[in-house]
Amino acid sequence: MKKSVVRILCFIFLLSGVLWCANRVLAFKHGDGIYSMAKFYQQKENTVDVLVMGSSRAFENVNTGLLWEEYGIAAYDLCGSLQPVWNTYYYLKEALKTQKPKLIVLETYMFSEGDEYADDSRIIKNTFGMKWSRDKIEAIKTSAPRERWKEFLFGYVWYHSRYAELSREDFFRDKGDVYYKDWKGFGCNMDTRVFDRPDTTVTDGRWNVLDKTRDYFQRFMELAEENDIPVLMFVAPYAGITEHEKEVFNTVSDMAAEYGVDFINYNLMYDQLGMDFSQDAADVFHLNYRGNQKLTRALGDYIVSHYSVPDRRGDEDYASWEGNARYISAQIGNQLLKETAELSRMTEQLKNPDYLLVVTVDGTCTTADENLEDLWTALGISQEIGSGIWCIDNSKGPLYISGEGISSQYIRMDYHDISMERTWEADSGSWQNTVSVDRREYRKTDNGVNVLVYSKVTQEVADVFGIRTEEDYALVR
Amino acid sequence: MQFNSLSFMIFFPVVLAVYFVIPRKLREIWLLLASYYFYMNWNPRYAVLIGASTLITYISGILMEKCRGLQSKSRKKGILVLCLVSNLGILALFKYGNFALETADRILEMLGISGGGRRLDLLLPVGISFYTFQALGYIIDVYRSDVKAERNLVRYALFVSFFPQLVAGPIERSGNLLAQIRKVPEMELWNGKRITSGAILMVWGFFMKMVIADRAAILVNTVFDNFRVYGSTELCLAAVCFAIQIYCDFGSYSAIAIGAARIMGFQLMENFNTPYFAVSIRDFWARWHISLSTWFRDYLYIPLGGNRKGRGRERLNKMAVFLVSGLWHGASWNFVLWGGIHGMYQVAADVLAPWKEALCRKMKIRQNCFSWTFLKMAVTFVLVDFAWIFFRANSVMDALRILKRILLRPTPWLLFNGGIYELGLDRGEFGILMIALLCLLLGDLIRYMKKVTIDGFLMEQNLWFEWLAVILLVTAIFVFGEYGPAVDAQQFIYFQF
Fold first, then answer.
1. Annotated catalytic residue B289
2. CA–CA distance from A88 to each of A52, A134, A277, A372 (Å)?
3. Which of A240, A331, A419, A430 ranks highest by number of CB atoms within 10 Å?
4. Dist CA A48 CA A73 (whole Å)
5. Using one digit for the tens of pLDDT, what is the confidence trace for B416-462?
6. Facing residues of A112 across strands?
7. What value of ipTM does the predicted structure carry?
8. Class of domain A16-334
9. Is A171 part of the contact surface with chain B (CB cutoff 8 Å)?
10. Could you give the CA distance from residue A233 to residue A246 in angstroms, rounded to a whole number?
11. Which entry of B318, B329, B392, B447 is annotated as an active-site residue?
């Protein structure tokens, strides 16, 4: 019998191991809720000084990289998509198990929530990231109707059928992406949509927020008070604000006053922020990389002048905040490069030491072209070789120059394979330069210069553009 | 409570844990309580019916045994008839009441009389046909003095309601299950091999149900529920998938039931033995739902005279048995017709047997080779699958319309242009189904050729292979099983019978 028991235990151990692996691979890894909590657990204990909480209006608008770079604030956006206040409360409970923040910044858009229960997707995103504990069970019981508790208790039943959509991110640590290595929950939105400035007429109206929201806000504030953590409440500017929402924010202002905490409605401060809705909005609800920097600066200024939050720059324990800021900065740099339409401005940006450039000179274009002299100089390309492929690491120098004959080279950058090949095409009687990354070929012009910009910080193709010589050196993307 | 539910995943280990540790004397009571809890999980009111059926047959059994001597023989018969009528009456009322009213309405309608359209407001209790037949089998056995009447009510109630096989069989015989229940207090529960064997069978059952049957059901439901927009390829594919679905659905229930019972120390009878390897319809019925086929053989076909009263009567008896079997499966004419088709197959096989032999001799067809066996298997499968169309269709008219579309709406190009992947299962899902079917085929081949079930085969292998196979099966169930909120959980098909 002893032998049987040992055998059964060994088998159960093995089976559990396999199922654990399957669970890890198949689990949801949404950045807008689940992964931000999973990553939060990985933060060193008691390092998060400012805990930013709320919905996507918080994690897409409060730039943790900028708060670090300009103020030395170690902030983490612990938020969830359309996160109701009751989930924010449970996120705070969870957060306080490992962190002692100096300040909680609470974004309040979801005080306008009108339903007792969110949709399935939000229930999942706002609870599945939590580790097993009584609080997680309570969070599920609060988030879902009683008859559906069972469904959400075992996340596996939701995601086991994800096998058809598995990708690289499911198999590697940090989702196999350097983006998540030092991530602090912030998602920098790079889209731009043009909106008119919203109506700034002030209303005095009030709106009764949901009893459930009020109840959990009370619990939230009491929890913060118990832990002696000040709370700063705000609502971010957005293009789609309605009269009803203005009334809700008036009520939120009253609620904040009841607890004696600050509330800033940035929708009343467009001018102070310098908010330009023709270029600062990503969509009707969120700011883009330009807008979030304006809002974050305003918040940062307010925090350092009203609360006691230390400047952690230079502290080795906070290296990951440095990494996060560097990544976000590089991400924005890539976006600025993509949006640049003048070659003269671009030549400066291309000198960024974090870039690796792959340049091909194709068709009738040669390096002898004097109209592109500034470009050759900026890239360090010798005009002696007429055409071909150049691969230049801005911090190291040229990695590969094809010359004018047949040649090929393969370079492994991080987890990407870059292939460069120069061949003679007998049919057309011309030289062909081919550049591909992970088997995807990049070419913008057959006659002129093609440039592929790879960022060593964000570990991705940052930009690809072509200069068409026969079209008056037009820049094409 | 379904086997493939979270409730059962909690219920079964709890029942098992308590069963293994409680004093021996309490085992029967515990299993009875667990069985009633299991059954009442569907609807607590069901317990009244099963309780009534149990009491009637229990008392009848004891009364019959008390009848001795010549005069008592007629009394004994009277008790039997009364018991049969009351049990079949309950079954008829709950299962066939509305069917009878509907049929009467239709006949009246044809005669130009309004039937009123009244229906009984009754809920069909899950598995009523199964436990009624099990109880009736017992009472007939007692009548024939094949078994002694059970005087311990707890034991007898457990025999009728034993939860692993309560709602979808196998329909156990008193000679087997009741005899084992009588020995429960003496049973040695800790037996690693027996427990492993039961657990493997359960895993295999879950694999058949959750990975194969419920996946095939997606295609089957898509096509059959909207057959008017599909042509021959889709309908034939759906018919083949239904053959797979119903085998894996029903076979899986039996495997889980047998496995669960085995872990608890009970040996239930085999219910399926590679039915699609059958070489004739007669052979098919010796392999499909064996517990029901043998029940009908022992308690209906033989009492009707079997093959003892001439050829004509034998064929008539066969037809009668299959028509009743069809009706047992469901209160609808398409089930009756399905049974009738199988009856006709059997009669036709009898009639045509000399012709077939003569033809084979004349054409010098070799009958002791693989190609002949394979041909017979293929023909049997086609005949069985043809009948399944009547079984699955919502009505006889729908079945006929489906057959008409198969004949008159050819769509062979769908086999080549990927159209078959638009029937609810995309290319990936189809691939998973095919791989799972390959596993099923391997399991059935082992059963067919080595005469050993999957648990026996795996336990004969080296430990690494046994563990690898079981771990792969469990992982396949967890990952590829059709379950969770996104999936409309498929009930076991045979629950409705």
1. no
2. 10, 16, 29, 55
3. A331
4. 9
5. 999 999 999 999 999 999 999 999 999 999 999 999 999 999 999 99
6. none
7. 0.80
8. alpha beta
9. no
10. 15
11. B329
